[in-house]
Amino acid sequence: MRPSGRNLSEMRAVSIETGITKHAEGSCMIRIGDTHVLCTATIEDRVPPFIKGSGLGWVTAEYGMLPRSTTSRMRREATAGKQGGRTVEIQRLIGRSLRAGVDRVALGERQITVDCDVIQADGGTRCAAITGGWVALKLAVQKLIKTGAVTSDPLTDPVAAVSCGLYAGQAVLDLDYPEDSEAGVDGNFIMTQSGKLIEVQMSAEGATFNRDQMNQLMDLAEKGVADLAAAQLAAVNA
Amino acid sequence: MRPSGRNLSEMRAVSIETGITKHAEGSCMIRIGDTHVLCTATIEDRVPPFIKGSGLGWVTAEYGMLPRSTTSRMRREATAGKQGGRTVEIQRLIGRSLRAGVDRVALGERQITVDCDVIQADGGTRCAAITGGWVALKLAVQKLIKTGAVTSDPLTDPVAAVSCGLYAGQAVLDLDYPEDSEAGVDGNFIMTQSGKLIEVQMSAEGATFNRDQMNQLMDLAEKGVADLAAAQLAAVNA
Amino acid sequence: MRPSGRNLSEMRAVSIETGITKHAEGSCMIRIGDTHVLCTATIEDRVPPFIKGSGLGWVTAEYGMLPRSTTSRMRREATAGKQGGRTVEIQRLIGRSLRAGVDRVALGERQITVDCDVIQADGGTRCAAITGGWVALKLAVQKLIKTGAVTSDPLTDPVAAVSCGLYAGQAVLDLDYPEDSEAGVDGNFIMTQSGKLIEVQMSAEGATFNRDQMNQLMDLAEKGVADLAAAQLAAVNA
Amino acid sequence: MRPSGRNLSEMRAVSIETGITKHAEGSCMIRIGDTHVLCTATIEDRVPPFIKGSGLGWVTAEYGMLPRSTTSRMRREATAGKQGGRTVEIQRLIGRSLRAGVDRVALGERQITVDCDVIQADGGTRCAAITGGWVALKLAVQKLIKTGAVTSDPLTDPVAAVSCGLYAGQAVLDLDYPEDSEAGVDGNFIMTQSGKLIEVQMSAEGATFNRDQMNQLMDLAEKGVADLAAAQLAAVNA
Amino acid sequence: MRPSGRNLSEMRAVSIETGITKHAEGSCMIRIGDTHVLCTATIEDRVPPFIKGSGLGWVTAEYGMLPRSTTSRMRREATAGKQGGRTVEIQRLIGRSLRAGVDRVALGERQITVDCDVIQADGGTRCAAITGGWVALKLAVQKLIKTGAVTSDPLTDPVAAVSCGLYAGQAVLDLDYPEDSEAGVDGNFIMTQSGKLIEVQMSAEGATFNRDQMNQLMDLAEKGVADLAAAQLAAVNA
Amino acid sequence: MRPSGRNLSEMRAVSIETGITKHAEGSCMIRIGDTHVLCTATIEDRVPPFIKGSGLGWVTAEYGMLPRSTTSRMRREATAGKQGGRTVEIQRLIGRSLRAGVDRVALGERQITVDCDVIQADGGTRCAAITGGWVALKLAVQKLIKTGAVTSDPLTDPVAAVSCGLYAGQAVLDLDYPEDSEAGVDGNFIMTQSGKLIEVQMSAEGATFNRDQMNQLMDLAEKGVADLAAAQLAAVNA
Questions:
Q1: Which GO terms describe its biological process (chains A, B, C, D, E, F) (predicted)?
Q2: What does the radius of gyration of chain F's CA atoms come to, in whole angstroms?
Q3: In A, which residues are within 8 Å of E69 by CB distance?
Q4: Residue F208: its chain E contacts at CB < 8 A?
Q5: Substitution target from E68, E74, E116 for chain A, most A beta carbons within 10 A
Q6: Nearest-CA distance E104 → chain F (Å)
Q7: Angle F18-F19-F24 from CA coordinates, rounded to 5°
Q8: N or C: which end of chain C has fewer CB within 10 A?
Q9: Which of helix, strand or coil describes residue B156?
Q10: Does C23 fall in a domain?
């Protein structure tokens, strides 16, 4: 029943390739089916003004899509002169989600910027960005631990994200683009491997949902995040 | 235990005053405690290019805060040269939420723009904007029905929104600013009077939550939306 | 002969309601007929660089119109990405006018920003903004005097503004929108209660004027400002 | 008593050199003392949307300052990414003033854009721009008359502008930069050669004025405009 | 003598991997040593206004760098609100160079946009972009030929680019970043496989050069372009 | 054969008038035929952050065109909200070229900004800007030497620029606009009087060139630069 032939609770194939760029302190290419996102983490000594002197660390994120990551070419945001509303909304979500999984005391007063650039899009880019972004972040933190700059690991519980939605009346896991563009209800679920919830966003466009359906989507999401967290740990421990 | 002395499941005082500006097709000032938002609805014959000729209507929203609606003065976005990320995120949410409660076939090929401008902020401005925005929208649609331009009411089930969160470890309804700035978890719940869910956004900053807590917040939200919907209907039928 | 039935030298009804927003140091809603402007004053300790260390105070103003304050909806300037020429011109006028009525030595090295936001427009918004802006400014200064931060009142002579013009060949006081859009010549007159002139702007579009007409408009303006100043004092002393 | 040694009612030396650039339909370099402004007029067949089909013409203006036209270098507005408030205010004034002296029916449905670029500034640039702008405009219109595109002269009464102010307590004509930066009150007076008033802007900064002083400034302005109009006619008839 | 140990006339390793993204009509990842650029070509039916109806085709290019493609993180241009001067200069060069190698009559009235996004930078990104851009362009054109939309190949002579410079007093081929940042003179040479010159840019910073040196750099460039063209043909014929 | 009737190796008439604006430390109007560029040099004590404390000086340039310097009116870049790609490319070239001819140690830690504003364009504006810019720069430096702020002349070898191209199959010197718009190949050659090369940019649009043609253009350029350098020295020594 799904265009891809997947089962209702089946994720797309997941791969996470680390060490993609030599300059970044942490980097990976995450591929969730045909959605490919390059994630890099940059460590900087400065922090935003509002936490200067607090001893706390900060994690922030930026998101972009290459012009031809999509079916038809999108206008380059640098040419348009600003980031669009969707971009801003997504990068705020990525930053919040990653931050919620960080022990900011343990990180110490430094900032890590996670850049997520979509190379190829096929639905679920923001979830892939969060999941891959955590890997890049973890790799950067491992360097800080190795040099002794950080002594206690601030990232002990992986953060991952997956989208679920109601497609053709059924709750399905990990929407791809053909499903996403048809689904009347979809949601993004950001959790830790240990099952803690960080962010839940369910949204209806041209439809509504009820609490039963919400619970079905939550159940699927828990399954998906478990799979993703395993892939994350495999990648960072490789 | 709440700074305001309210019970855990107690809303702030709600008032909705209609007919605030003479030019708009629909308008109201919604006051949820000390949060005051002026909402206006503007009917236009044009629709966005992607639905031209479809016979379907469109509802969109814009959001702004007056510079001194807040404790300390905010920079005017027109001076800054762009809308900030938070503004963009909120106005997209308002538009999506109102649209989900509209029968776009019944509305016919026209656009209604709902402007929500915060006159005074004390927490929960986006929820007040959605709730008041629905009233302005309904009043505008009533004019279309009166003139016969629309023959079947496209707005039969009020859409309202309320925020809930975990404050000092407890689930509380309708966060005001002192609570909102302390809460590690908060959520915005957009529903119809009949209990249909339109959008759920739960977000942790410096904390996490579990499904039990999520359900408690949902229960509170259902109570809050019922109160708000009653106030909406009273206002539009006055 | 006037669309509103007013006499040639008759102002519209004037009301000034103070204490409109709880956050601002001074605020009022001024209503001149159907023109409604919300004015707030914000005290800040910083001053512009060019007077730093001078001991002198500064007063500046910003002006905006809500999108549906007008007959048809105006584009939000924050969305357009910049303030339009008319906005810039008006807010510079408000700032200059208010500043000319302030003893900047007595104010001391601090800045007060007056925000004037048009809620509903029906002609004469810049004059209403100056008149209401002075009230907000005075209320903020009264707080500084009460706390002893300012010891000598820097605002002893109210500043008010009114527009006059040639409508259907006659000099008329306080143009409303239907008159303003027809008048070939109009002017804005900013004065103090004691009759000192601060700014006079007379402008012809599709017509010219002579010195006799200029003097008639000045005479009307003096009458109008006297009425406005009385309303200002009543409001701040209430 | 004046820094330049001029009498109270003495203009600076005025020269208007026409035919400065080969591409423009009309052009001149106007020099009022050390204030030098290059003015060009461009004829275009299109008109702004709001008069399309009306048969009426339009005149508009733009104003700029070269970065080193001033004592210390100003930032180039193209680099800053926008025109400043002062620029916008001035170019709107130039456009309005020139338009008020044009018979828009006789001009016919076309637009003339007058560009005024300050090569060297020493006070009074906006007045020089209006005065020189009229010359460029007139030269362009003469071409239209010569080709028969326009049959009745739409520019029969020269428009000129001069600034006057209160300097060291005295009314003086044609403020130069040292006077302008000291004057507590100054004004710009735009008139036609025949004595019709088009725009009067009097403004106090750190002072006020009364009607007697206003009349003295008006008297001086009439004298100044007579001198300028003679120079304009000499230039266009050369 | 070269930091990399290469001979004076030795290129870095070159690889061109095609079919990188599924959406683009043509795409490749070109790797010149540690410089990696993703190039995509997008076919559109519209052309710029100035050639509409001419029957001629158009090729244009855009260039970007991912924020962490460089040693330290660069600010994202979409966040900065505009493309920097270097970006603009480079993308104009890429467009001009590719266009010079296209038979625009044979291409027919359509536009191909080549996007070049730097994934990892180590000197010579603009040359890699042109060389890889030609491959993406060729692949897109092959599709047009396959469908019969284009009947005569508009791309018969590969266009490639290489940088050469004076490093430590010697002429060297294909500067990498350590060389580029030390070289007092460097140049970009864009040629076709058959030896036709398209663009030559030689530039001194803190040094000068003479015609002998210019000729040495030209000789090296001819060798480099021959190598690159062979790699291009191998890639498109794979 | 040339539209102007000039010989293949004949420059247009060159004149350089110094002391054009009273405020700038150095200024000239350079006229190469009908191309007229006003160049000013501004000395500032600050330097860019990346050389602060190095003891080295800096020279930078900005370039602009007056709206009606061209055949049809160009949009003012300050109105458009940004400098176009061509402008950015040109001003970077001017800055680089002038810098290459400066002994930055001798100049000392200060910045000189050269503004080049095109008053009338007829081809070759960037070359005229470099040539005239050097004169303005030299005049400013002469002031520094006169006051003793600089003790050793940092500008001993004039920098000048000329364009050459292939017009109707022939190599010609100093392209004017009619030639420039027809030439399939053109180049800009920046050299010192003593024959050192600073920048060479040759570019084909709709054509290609070979090394023989390149050498012919170089020969012509050497002749042109010799003429220009003589005019530069005459101007600065006048």
A1: rRNA 3'-end processing; rRNA catabolic process; tRNA processing
A2: 18
A3: 21, 23
A4: 100, 192, 196-198
A5: E68
A6: 9
A7: 125
A8: C
A9: coil
A10: yes
State how far residue C31 is from chain D, nearest Cα, in angstroms: 26
- pLDDT value for D40: 98
β-strand C111-120 against C58-65: which pairing, if any? parallel
User: Rounded to whole angstroms, how far apart are CA atoms C40 and C31?
Assistant: 14
* Phi-psi map region of D198: left, alpha, beta (phi>0 left; psi -120 to 50 alpha): alpha
Nearest residue on chain E to F96, alpha-carbon basis: E205
pTM for this entry: 0.91
E231: CB partners within 8 A, 6+ apart: E14, E15, E16, E131
Average pLDDT of the segment spanning B133-155: 97
Half-sphere exposure of C31 toward its Cβ, with a 13 Å CA cutoff? 9
pLDDT of residue C205: 83
Using the beta-carbon criterion (under 8 Å), do D68 and F24 form an inter-chain contact? yes
pLDDT per residue, tens digit, chain F (238 aa), is: 899 999 999 999 999 999 999 999 999 999 999 999 999 999 999 999 999 999 999 999 999 999 999 999 999 999 888 888 899 999 999 999 999 999 999 999 999 999 999 999 999 999 999 999 999 999 999 999 999 999 999 999 999 999 999 999 999 999 999 999 999 899 999 999 999 999 999 999 878 999 999 999 999 999 999 999 999 999 999 8
Pairs across D and F, CB distance < 8 A: 99
* Contact criterion met (CB < 8 Å) for B64 and C76: yes
Q: Is the ipTM of this complex over 0.85?
A: yes
**Residue in A197, A198, A203 closest to B199 by CB:** A203
DSSP per-residue codes, C112-167? EEEEEEEEE-SS-HHHHHHHHHHHHHHHHHHHHHHTTS--S-S--S-EEEEEEEEE
Residue of A nearest to E115 (CA): A67
Q: How open is the CA angle E187-E192-E198, to the nearest 5 degrees?
A: 50
What are the pLDDT digits (tens) for B92-140? 999 999 999 999 999 999 999 999 999 999 999 999 999 999 999 999 9
Chain F nearest-CA distance from D127, in A, is 20
Which of C80, C113, C120 lies nearest to residue B23, judging by beta carbons?
A: C120
| Phi, psi values for residue E63, rounded to 5° | -135, 140
Range of the domain at D135: 14-236
Specify binding-site residues of F for phosphate. 86, 124-126
Q: Is residue E91 part of a domain?
A: yes
> Is D180 a domain residue?
yes
- Total tally of structural domains belonging to chain C: 1
CATH number for the domain spanning C82: value is 3.30.230.70
Minimal CA separation from C22 to chain D, in Å: 31
Asked if residue E2 is part of any domain, the answer here is no
pLDDT at A206: 74
Nearest-CB residue to C73 (from B42, B64, B81): B42
- Chain F residues close to E206, C-beta within 8 Å: 99-100, 104
With beta carbons under 8 A apart, name residues in chain D contacting F82: 78, 81
> Cα B208 to chain center, whole Å?
26
Whether residue E95 is predicted with pLDDT greater than 80 in this model: the reply is yes
Put simply, the answer to whether E115 touches A69 (Cβ < 8 Å) is no
State how beta strands B35-44 and F26-32 pair: unpaired
Tell which residue, F31, F7, F121, F107, has the closest CA to residue F67. F121
> Which pLDDT band holds residue E102 (cuts at 50, 70, 90)?
very high
- Residue where the block lists tokens 């006020």: D208
**Of C199, C197, C171, C198, which Cα lies nearest the Cα of C184?**
C171
Q: Is E215 helix (H, G, I), strand (E, B) or coil?
A: helix
pLDDT at position C133: 98
Question: Does residue E56 contact residue E45 with C-beta atoms inside 8 Å?
Answer: no
CB pairs under 8 A between C and D: 89
DSSP, collapsed to helix, strand or coil, labels residue B178 as helix
Q: Coil, helix or strand for E84?
A: coil
